[in-house]
Amino acid sequence: MKLSDIATSQSTERSFTYRYGIAVAATALAALFGWLVPEAVDPEQYLGFYPAVVVAAALGGVGPGLIATFGALFLVNVVFDRFNPSDHGEVMRQVIWVAASVGVSLLAGKLRTARHRAEREAAAARQGDEQLRELTQRLNYHIDNSPLAVIEWGPDMRLTRWSGAAERIFGWKAGEVLGKRLEDFRWIYDDDSPQVAQVVSDLQNGKNPSRFSANRNYRKDGSVVHCEWYNSSLLDDSGNLRSILSLALEVTDRIKLEEALQQYSEMLEIRVAERTAELREKDRLLLYQSRLAIMGEMLNNIAHQWRQPLNVLGLNIQRLALFYETGDFSKELLDSSTRDAMKLIHHMSQTIDDFRNFFKPDKEKSDFSVASAIQQSISLVVDGFRHHQIALKTRLDGNARINGYPNEFSQVILNILQNARDALVEREIADGTITVTSTVRDGISVITISDNAGGIPGEIIDNIFEPYFSTKGMNGTGIGLFLSKNIIETNMGGSLTVRNGPDGAEFMIEI
Predict the structure, then answer these.
(1) Is the CB of residue 380 less than 8 Å from the CB of residue 421?
(2) Helix (H, G, I), strand (E, B), or coil: what is residue 158?
(3) pLDDT tens across 150-179, in order?
(4) Largest Cα–Cα distance in the chain?
(5) What region, left, alpha or beta, does residue 222 occupy, with left being phi > 0 and alpha being psi -120 to 50 degrees?
(6) What is the bridge-based pairing of β-strands 391-396 and 433-441?
């Protein structure tokens, strides 16, 4: 059983004891009065029992009133022996008296019930008023302590509510603004007045009963605050305005932060643009430097290619002079020397064409032989490698073919070969060797270029394909391998990797 059920049961028991105790007590007092005043129990008077019945019924209800009535009959007729059945008048008087007592009991009971009902209704009303008052107090407390300003206008657009948050945000106390209209005090920021007027119009005519707006407001001290307004209008059945409720959130700090972030973003964009321009200029200079380095390398290779033919051409010229001085000069000798000289000149001209075609960019992809492209690259540098006593070994699969850009592919091979040559020369390797192989594995052409220069230091091997990374100091641009990887992977859809083998670095191209 719940505690509330126990309390109700105890209250019912106390009420029962109280009510019927009154009936017994009233009847007992009437009996005492009849014993002390015998004439009070005369059948014609019943003076002591009328008050007992009335008191019992009024205080206890119908039940106690009836108990008092029949208790009085019992006392009069049995205890005091005043009843005479043969006296029809007396019997009739007692019947009338009982009927009157019962009527009094019923009337008093109804009055008691009505009184109790009125008391309960009054108590319920008082409790409802108290709860409403407490609820109103709690609601006003929370409204006043909310960051949202709660502001309400009546049908005539006069302020009827101005919460504590509104006082904190705008500076005016409620007593200073309640009953005023918008135009009665300087509150709306001048430039935002048309916007606010449109919002108010939409709310008044019911066109948009729920409107959001963001505008600036003046504070009492003249300063400006930014607010977000959440507005709602209430109309009656006839479409007439009853009230407008607005919840205002001050966002001044947020607006200032957004403006600061915007300024910072614009400044950052300017700095990024300036830095990008600087990097582009740096890239342009580095590319220019790289081109100069490539041109220098090309000229160096041309010099190696031309050195031997120029020596032979010089010997031919010297031979003509020698034979002329000795008297052995003849038409046949002149023709032979001329033919040899023209062959050498043609070879030197072909060398220029080879270099020019080598650096000419490809416009479209085409199928080409891997072995031919590698041989073309080797032919341009073989004399320079011989000059440094570096052996070039090849094991090329003639079936390997690639669809791509042959000149760009040859430039990649040339760049890796030159890096290997530089490493061998820098480290003064006595029997420098570079090995180039090509094979076909599962339809993929695999090209490896390895040397015996000792390999790439482990701390930098993962960085060699990054732009502007170079191990050659001022003699390197740091973009050769970066461009090579970009050509193989971006332009031709392959991969270019490097690892350290037993004797040195090994570059692998897979396409």
Answers:
(1) no
(2) coil
(3) 999 999 999 999 988 999 999 999 999 999
(4) 204
(5) left
(6) parallel
